[in-house]
Structures are given as C-alpha cells and as structure tokens.
Write a sequence for this structure.
C-alpha cells in the first residue's frame, strides 16, 4: 500500500518509486484519483477477506457465508464521503455501510447483508462500486441450505 501526500492534485498522473532493502526501484506512472476501491482477499485464493456476523467466523471455502447474513469485508481506497454500493452475484446492495478501522491507516470495513436468495450458489462474485469506479472482483463462498 502506498500513501500519497494530502495535497496531491487528483485527475492527473504522478511518478511512483518503491524503495526496498535500501534500493530504489524504477519509477512507474500512476493515475491520481481521490479514491479507488479495492477489496482484500485471503491468501492467494481470491476469497474475500471478511466474516459473517451470524456465525462469527472468517469466510473460507470450509466456513462459507450464510445467505442473508450480515457480511463484514475489508478493503482500502474508499472515499467515505461518496456512497459505496456492494454488488453480490449481480444483485446491487444499496444499504452498504463503510468506515475506517481505528488505528489501521487506509484500511476500511464495509458491512452489508447478503441476499437471502443465494442458497443455490456455491460461490458468488463481489465487487464494490463507488462513483464511477469499480473494485476488483472477489469470491464469496456461500453455504448451501
């Protein structure tokens, strides 16, 4: 994760350089936006990093989310002044709450209720739309009823 100076103007590009082990990498050009939603995943599985409030367990293939549960997922790059909308299996969830996690700079939590009609799916796709920007797409394993 990289942090930009607070006064950096949006709408253009900037050069980004990464320092690792005392060595500076080659500059790359990045687009500067006020926000750019990103959802986190567990390991390399593309499974969303989150938990289901109904079961109080982390979402994994072995511990899937329940249809209709209140889901907490984690990401970054959100603008908390712009409404975020979760899209789960193609269904738009307008009632999505987003907030910062205290003591964790740049980390955001999104909370929304999964649609109850997901009982037939083994897994659904999740993405977040904020303004004209869309996050990466991650997988949410679903417990079949």
């Amino acid at each position: 994760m990289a942090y930009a100076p607070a006064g950096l103007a949006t709408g253009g590009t900037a050069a980004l350089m990464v320092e690792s082990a005392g060595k500076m990498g080659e500059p790359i050009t990045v687009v500067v936006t006020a926000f750019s939603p990103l959802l986190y995943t567990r390991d390399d599985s593309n499974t969303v990093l989150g938990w289901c409030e109904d079961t109080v367990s982390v979402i994994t293939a072995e511990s899937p989310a329940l249809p209709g549960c209140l889901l907490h997922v984690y990401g970054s790059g959100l603008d908390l002044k712009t409404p975020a909308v979760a899209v789960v299996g193609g269904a738009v969830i307008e009632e999505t709450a987003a907030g910062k996690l205290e003591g964790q700079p740049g980390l955001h939590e999104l909370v929304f209720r999964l649609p109850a009609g997901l009982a037939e799916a083994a897994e659904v796709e999740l993405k977040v739309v904020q303004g004209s920007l869309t996050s990466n797409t991650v997988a949410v394993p679903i417990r079949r009823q």
